Amino acid sequence: MKTLILPLFIFCTLTCDAQILDTLNYALGKVDYAKNSEFVKIPDQYANKSGMYLRKEALDAFIIMRQAAKADGIELRIISAARSFYHQKSIWEAKWTGKRLVNGKNLSATIADESTRAVEILKYSSMPGTSRHHWGTDIDINSLNPAYFESGKGKKEYEWLRGNAHLYGFCQVYSEKGKERQDGYEEEKWHWSYVPIASVLTKFHVTRISEKELYGFAGDKSLSLAEKRKYILGISSYCK
Fold first, then answer.
1. CB of 48 closer than 8 Å to CB of 79
2. What is the CATH number of the domain that holds 208?
3. pTM attached to this predicted model
4. Could you read off the pLDDT of 79-135 as tens digits, one per residue?
5. How many domains does the chain have?
């Protein structure tokens, strides 16, 4: 598989169509992480389960950040990392069809309108092809439960990340919604993005990927491209 060269995401011209095709597939999560030289398997001591992958640069930065956190009495562990289009499709379609309940509800039974159902799922789950987890730049840390970070150990971990993660290139992309961030997913205190690479991929996604690439899953026509892009661009201004 071709090496993905970041500057080409922006500056590549018609003379490098093959590179653009590789990058399109990468941005959409249509990548075999185990066979792509840009990605490395996360060692078990840094994660809560085996077999997860990240881009090498993001993992290196996380390891340094984790060491600094540990020196301050804070334990950081990756609980989710790179997720392919097909992995994201399985999550999305389970919620879409009701096989997986959302807030205790079978959405296929309670929300007939497809656009309304999509928006409900999009509070916390991305459509396949639009997830930042496709890129191997984004990680979920320690817990997916919002309440975990509101008190005790979880609150201390979050406060440490808020104060220090930027020193290692990481940013909380889905910060509290309000004036500063009006669109996109609900707040996720566990989701941190490696900005040096992810910021370039964000720009690539909205300039190079069109409606015709975002297909192949249940509900893929439920929202317009403009609505889908609100979730790609609805991130903290510090992460752009």
1. yes
2. 3.30.1380.10
3. 0.90
4. 999 999 999 999 999 999 999 999 999 999 999 999 999 999 999 999 999 999 999
5. 1
